[in-house]
Specification:
SH3 type barrels; 389 residues; five-stranded mixed sheet; 3 domains; Immunoglobulin-like; Jelly Rolls; alpha+beta; four-stranded antiparallel sheet
């Protein structure tokens, strides 16, 4: 812009100079007007040359001013160069899809209530659509973590499991087991094992030594769909006393086909379940088992002895041996003629067990029949009350 102003000033100077020349020519006396023709021609040439110069200067001024304007416009139109490249914001959620189907038919289950529980978060509910699908939006911080899924649908057994939350998993398919009478067969001789009614595990479960404690009878987890045989329930209707393979223990009713079943209340009640103050020490398998005490303590032993066939069992008895010596006060006669000669029979040594004492068993019987034996030993503190007498 300053360059254009300079050129324009030069044009004004040239015009002023030509104007002064014309003024001088207007006052020329008549005698001078008679001057030589050559002199006039020189004047005309001078005027024409000045006009050409003025025209050239005007074009140059116009071009310079236009260039200045274009430079100004260009500076305004070109965006400034960014000082840094913006980064994309990470997505705070990922989608976790669940499909609910019938376990027996693989048909979609619409309208099922699916609840997901995450650590530090309140439970969140969604409902499956007509295709059995539901989508959860999971915060990315739970990627790869474990969450709890509960599924409730009318006519189906409650589903309650933990699952790994993976963003790259396309679909989690959950199969619901229908609530039907067929899960608990009628008690006919052909359908009974251990002379006990069977049940199914609707979820995987541990087998506990006590319904009021977390200690286990076996380290293995009982898988979903496994058949267990029900001896009875506890008084508070929270657990079933069951047989699984050659183990006897407690499982929550909520993980079995007896949950909310009308036959639940008809089961035998174990009203002498171990209290929470009784500590499970060990569960033994086999009549040859021996336990060694590590301190002075009072103990209670819950014993089960069962057979592999029906029919009469000869007169027999079971007695405790402490340090290899028969404790006669603990002898129990076997009078049961079914598959359980001894069912949850409680043995209590008359005196406290000392450090280093050994406790074993002696079965007196004329039978050579193969028998299964389990015994869970509990430590019972002095102030612990267990109604076993």
């Amino acid at each position: 812009m300053n360059h254009a102003k300079e050129i324009f000033a030069r044009i004004l100077t040239a015009l002023a100079f030509l104007g002064s020349q014309n003024s001088q020519n207007s006052v020329i006396e008549d005698s001078e007007q008679q001057a030589d023709l050559g002199s006039r021609r020189r004047q005309v040439g001078t005027i024409s040359l000045g006009a050409i110069i003025i025209g050239i200067l005007a074009v140059i001024a116009f071009w310079a001013d236009s260039l200045t304007i274009l430079e100004s416009l260009s500076a305004r139109l070109v965006p400034p160069t960014p000082t840094s490249i913006p980064t994309s914001t990470p997505v705070p959620y990922f989608d976790f899809y669940v499909r609910i189907v019938d376990a027996s038919t693989d048909a979609n289950v619409p309208g099922a209530q699916i609840t997901i529980e995450l650590a530090g978060q309140p439970p969140h509910d969604e409902y499956s659509d007509s295709n059995g699908f539901v989508r959860f939006r999971i915060p990315t911080k739970y990627q790869g973590e474990w969450g709890r899924l509960r599924v409730q649908a009318e006519g189906y057994i409650l589903y309650d499991q933990h699952t790994n939350l993976e963003s790259d998993r396309l679909l989690e398919t959950i199969k619901l087991t229908p609530k039907t009478q067929s899960l608990i067969p009628t008690q006919t001789e052909s359908s009974l094992v251990y002379n006990l009614p069977p049940a199914l595990l609707t979820r995987s479960s541990d087998m506990f030594a006590s319904p009021n404690r977390s200690e286990l009878v076996v380290s293995a987890t009982l898988p979903v769909g496994e058949t267990i045989y029900v001896m009875g329930r506890n008084e508070t209707t929270s657990h079933l006393r069951v047989v699984w393979r050659n183990a006897v223990g407690w499982v929550p009713i909520s993980v079995t086909s007896y949950d909310d079943h009308p036959l639940l209340n008809s089961l035998p009640v174990f009203d002498r379940e171990p209290p929470a103050c009784a500590e499970p020490i060990v569960t033994q398998f086999g009549l040859n088992s021996v336990w060694v005490s590590d301190r002075v303590q009072r103990i209670v032993i819950v014993v089960n002895l069962f057979r592999s066939r029906y029919g009469p069992f000869p007169e027999s008895s079971l007695v405790l041996r402490v340090n290899g010596i028969v404790v006669e006060d603990t002898r129990r006669q076997i009078v049961e003629r079914g598959q359980f000669p001894l069912k949850d029979i409680v043995f209590t040594p008359p005196q406290d067990i000392q450090p280093g004492d050994t406790v074993g068993y002696q079965l007196n019987t004329p039978s050579d029949e193969l028998l299964s034996f389990t015994a869970t030993i509990f430590g019972v503190p002095q102030n612990c009350q267990w109604g076993i007498h």
